Amino acid sequence: MDTSLPSGAGRVPTADAGGRTMPLLGFGTHPLRGDQATEAVLTAFSVGYRLVDTATRYRNEAAVGTALATTSLPRSELFVTTKMPPDQVGRERLTLEESLAALGCDYLDLWLIHWPPGGYPGVTSWREFIRARDEGLVRAIGVSNYPVELIDALHEATGEYPAVNQVRWGPGNHDPEFAEAMRRRDVLLSAHSPLRGTDLDHPVLADVARRHGRSARDVVLAWNLHHKVAVTVKSAHRDRMERNLSAVDITLTPEDIGAINGLSGVAPA
Amino acid sequence: MPTAATHQAGTGLDRLSEQLDKAGFAALVLTSPGGRRYALGRTPGLADGTAVLLTTEGTVTSAAGDLPTAITAVLRAGGVAGGVVGAEADLPWEVFGQVSQAGVRLRPAADLVFTELASGEPGEPGELAAVAAAADLAAVGYTAVMDHLHVGMDVRELSGNVDRSIRRAGGLLGWYDPYGMTGRAAGSDLVTVRGHDPGTARLTAGTPVRFVLHPLLEGVAGYAAATAVLGEPDGPLRAAGAACAAATASLLAALRPGAPLRDGREAFDREAGEHAAACRIVALRGGGASLPLPRDSEVTAEPGMVLGVRTEVTVPGRGAVELAETVVLTDSGAEPQARTPLRLVELH
């Protein structure tokens, strides 16, 4: 291991995502564009991140692709996620080919349907996702922003659950029943916008952060990792990237976890 | 009689004044929102009015009120007692009657104004970046709509989603000024939504949902429109979508430097064939859309022009498929800026 890597690098926990080992802490690229996106991804790799998360919608796949082509890290050590927007129903293969070309990749590690198209499950697209995976163009397939009933509808239509469901997730919208529903279906829960919707100044977070000598932001990331929730974080600044990554070194106590779980604004069903 | 205010024009209007002189006009009357904003935007402190007069001597006069009296007022205040004055739009007969009594002749100057509003000022390298950023903001609004559409959705939720997303992306929420009457007006970046049940304001399956976005970013308006259907389109809707997409593509392909802009309109009409279809090309510099390019326009496409292209194919009894995009003309043709889908989007 490169001993110059900061705290946390090399110790990022992983989970199984449809047979592919997925780092639970990744680097999100929205809304970075152009050279700034390329430089940020390269910095993230140098800091120790190995998962990079982009999307057709972000309009930065080519910039991420430049970083993938520039880094000395072998492709096999990296995990590349991108997402198909819902307005591409009927154009799935074309969208995938455009993503692969922009990223300069032969395959994706994870390809997600970004939003339920029209609020429907998107069975037409899901069949194409399965076909792309079976043909080896993607290693794992999943969805984003899907409620349980739409995930079940995909399974009912095709016999296949998504490997991952990426949703807005943090202490403020923690929903144990939803998390359990994903776990029972072997769907890995992934968090985007982990800090949005959470009051980082809340006394509970402030207290936990103080006792661990860390920031509330770090504590939120550690809380996600404790729950085995994959989380993507974004920052164009190296020091912030390092700090986010170092959250893997925080071990929260059961009392900490219980207190943070209690911050949820989601009412029990 | 409305009160007219006169100021010396800024240097930004020098080129337009020169063009007036070359065309043999003593002055130019601007009455469209885009034209007024273009002229007054360079003279801080003046409120938008119903009529704005620019003279070859470089004075800008504005007056609010009903159109005939406002025009008469700016002609008088601008010192135009006789001669030929250019008008950017077809004006009502009352205007001609009233102006003729003052000894002034009005002649069309739509092409002159359109060229000015499309081409902007040389030596403003930041302007194209601002146009791209405003178009990008329209794309943000597009995403905020498209990602959340579902049958039964109240369309008022869409406005909230769009405004929140655009504000987060740096847009100026709620200062949309569609008519240029007051200078600023509260509103939404999502200008229109069609395709819902008018009785419940909720989206329905099968009816195309079309929406127009004009978010403002640092005085530049984004320009985009899109259409989606919540379900698999039936034959007539699919045909209208395909026709609109093909005709829009033809229009954009015909916008080549050196060719008349009206070639774009003609290409659209040819491709649309028997469909009930319409298109308009507007100039987008100056902070808002100009009047549409006239059918008989002689304006030639030039690199650096910023245009809005809006197209529509009617679906009998079901509304229409409507598309719009901001384009910058380059040596190689029209470059879309918002890059929202120029086709009927299917969501199912």
TrEMBL record, chain A:
Residues annotated to bind substrate: 114
The UniProt record lists the NADP-dependent oxidoreductase domain at 28-263
The GO molecular function terms of this record are: oxidoreductase activity, acting on the CH-OH group of donors, NAD or NADP as acceptor
Which superkingdom heads the taxonomic lineage of this protein's source?
Bacteria
Which residues of this protein are catalytic? 58
State the InterPro entries in the record: AKR, Aldo/ket_reductase_CS, NAD(P)_OxRdtase_dom_sf, NADP_OxRdtase_dom
Q: Does the keyword NADP apply?
A: yes
* Classification via Pfam families: Aldo_ket_red
What keywords tag this UniProt record?
A: NADP, Oxidoreductase
Where does the record place the site Lowers pKa of active site Tyr?
83
CDD domains, per database record: AKR_AKR1-5-like
Record has Acetylation as a keyword: no
Q: Which family would the database say this protein is a member of? A: Belongs to the aldo/keto reductase family.
Name under which the protein is recorded: Aldo/keto reductase
TrEMBL record, chain B:
- Give the species this sequence originates from: Streptomyces iranensis
Q: Which domain of life is it from?
A: Bacteria
Q: Which GO terms of the molecular function aspect are on file?
A: aminopeptidase activity
Per its record, how is this protein called by name?
Xaa-Pro aminopeptidase
Q: Which residues form a coiled coil?
A: none
DNA-binding keyword on record: no
Glycoprotein: present as a keyword of the record? no
**Lineage of this protein's species?**
Bacteria, Bacillati, Actinomycetota, Actinomycetes, Kitasatosporales
> What UniProt keywords are attached to this protein's entry?
Aminopeptidase, Hydrolase, Protease
Positions of the Peptidase M24 domain: 131-331
Q: Which Pfam families match?
A: Peptidase_M24
Signal sequence interval, chain numbering: none
Per its UniProt record, what InterPro entries does this chain match? Creatinase/aminopeptidase-like (IPR036005), Pept_M24 (IPR000994), Peptidase_M24B (IPR050659)
